Amino acid sequence: MGGTRHVPRTGGALIASNHLSNADPITVTAFCLVAGRVPRFLAKAVLWRVPVVRAVMRSGRHIPVHRGRASALDSYRDVVAAVREGDCVVVFPEGTFSDRADEWPMQGKTGLARIALTTGAPVVPVANWGTHHVLPDGARWPRLRPRRRVELLAGPPVDLSDLAGPKPSASQLREATTRIMTAITVLLAEVRGESPPPEQVKA
Question: What is the CATH class of 4-200?
Answer without folding.
Answer: alpha beta
